[in-house]
Amino acid sequence: MEPVIVTEKLTKKFDDFVAANELTFEVGKGEIFGFLGANGAGKTTAMRMLCGLLKPSSGKATVTGFDIYTQTEQIKKNIGYMSQKFSLYDNLTVKENIRFYGGIYGMRRKEIAVKTDELLSMLQLQGEAKTLVSELPLGWKQKLAFSVSIVHDPSIVFLDEPTGGVDPVTRRQFWDQIYYAADKGVTVFVTTHYMDEAEYCNRVSIMVDGVIAALDSPAALKKQYHSSSMQDVFYQLARNAKRKAD
Amino acid sequence: MRTLIFLLEKEFRQMMRNKQLMSLLIIAPLIQLILLPLAANYSVKNINIAIVDNDHSTISQRMIHKITASGNFRLTGYANNYNDALKMVEEDKADLILQIPANFEKNLVRENHNQVYLAINAIEGTKANLGGGYLASILRDFNENIRVNWVNPGTNNTPQVVVASTNWYNPYMNYHLYIVPAILVSLITSISAMQSAFNIVQEKESGTIEQINVSPIRKHIFITGKLIPFLVLGIFLFTLGLLAGWLFYGIVPVGKLYVLYISLVVYLFTMLGLGLLISTYSNSHQQALSLSFFFINIFNIMSGTFNSVDSMPGWAKTLVSVFPPSHFIRITRMVMLKGSSLADISGHLAAIFLIGLILNTWAVLNYHKTA
Fold this sequence. Notes:
The complex is a heterodimer of chains A (246) and B (371).
Chain A: E1 3-14, E2 17-28, E3 32-37, H1 43-50, E4 58-63, E5 66-67, H2 72-78, E6 79-82, H3 94-104, H4 109-123, H5 138-149, E7 156-160, H6 168-183, E8 187-191, H7 195-200, E9 203-208, E10 211-216, H8 218-224, H9 230-238
Parallel strand pairs in A: 3-8, 3-9, 6-7, 7-8
Antiparallel strand pairs in A: 1-2, 1-4, 4-5, 9-10
Helix pairs in contact in A: 3-4, 5-6
Chain B: H1 2-17, H2 19-39, E1 47-53, H3 58-69, E2 73-79, H4 82-90, E3 96-100, H5 104-111, E4 117-120, H6 125-151, H7 175-206, H8 208-213, H9 219-249, H10 257-281, H11 285-302, H12 314-320, H13 324-338, H14 342-366
Parallel strand pairs in B: 1-2, 1-3
Antiparallel strand pairs in B: 3-4
Helix pairs in contact in B: 1-9, 2-7, 2-9, 7-9, 7-10, 7-11, 7-13, 9-10, 10-11, 10-13, 10-14, 13-14
């Protein structure tokens, strides 16, 4: 499998605090890569470095072949990102949000119009095209935010706790969307706290205190830690964490 | 370029959709512009005066009558002695005490001169200064009359220098002509610098800025897209202000409108740059508000809205010369009252532009898409 993310000893320090310590891993094209860890373990920091939002302190990394120190703007053209914070404009309608984000990725009006129809029908939101995003229920907003983050057909999408606070049915639908995108060749890099979601991933890495404590497929991890569930694997690793959750 | 259009489309949509803010942005400045010139007036009226008349003569009566008839003074009351009058000052019922000594008239006629005693409550500086000045000039005038009519009737041998002055550009010293342009500028100042700062901080607070930063949008395009809507808003509000000045105070700019508008655009460029700079240093509304309030407060007090910059100490004048509003207030007054041309104001305009260039460059450099 051809790797799209390659990191080597990637490290981020904030003063004396080592948020991410010598992370080395690869993510292959079309893979759904789960990034697990307790609060404060360093997941978001790692993700922000890969997205070009944060400059690393040391180590090497490339995303879609571009260097994360010098080629952040090229990386930005090829990735999508959905942050932990809500990322759509509340006072714009569903359609206007799609148009704006398509526009800042350099898409043409025609392309955007076609894409909008496609997204709305996939999300079954045709009736809500002119609804303000603030009036949508949270689950719909999250599904819409995901669609918007891949509106420009990126090769990788980074999802930072995309399903926080979302009901189980909607979470399931959200993962259907993820599978659909992965089928089309989009690499999905996702952080989550839900262990059932971890089971959906091709491979999972578990971060503890800024380092990657385990990295493998869910099945292999369960075997290695003699557990029946990812919940148990995570618990065995995370309970030894020294860092306080934030 | 195409990206910029998408950005502008979004900004204008959001601006129009925020009806509450828009009506506030339009109505609040208009109310201020209409009300403030009526209230913020330097001609002091209603100075409360307490009089201790120990003479009770015709001449003291005349003097008191002359003072109360001037229209600037309101007679709080007569006191029997100075201490009673001082009590009135302490109770804030009187601002001035005029004490006329016993035998004032008798001594005046006999010895050809006499003294009255004037005590001024200087807590309210302006009122005290002007009140004292008014009273002194009334008494001087009264003095002349006595000299002519009483002491030496029929002759007036004192040689006098009479100063005849004309007030250019504002012949009747109409305070509105002076204050309306300045208030207009201070309103534009607050709105442009604050609103642009709030707008970007809003994106930081809601988290949408992350989504922008992770996109390939160029940062100068993003910033231009943020500034243009406020430039348009500023021009719109300034026009509304000019119209209000004309409707309510009959103020029509003597100079060319295009001179005024060219200066306005340069000024907005500068103040929006300040707002932008503030936003790059603030992560919350509270921080942005505190920072912009700090600057706007200083600007309003020090840029010559109410008081003259020329009478400030040297160091303050130097400091004020880097405040963009001080130049723009001068420009608006020069153009609106004197009819100054683009060449006349070019020095001030260049100063504003230079400051704007520095602020905007600083802001762009300080805005990082990557932390």
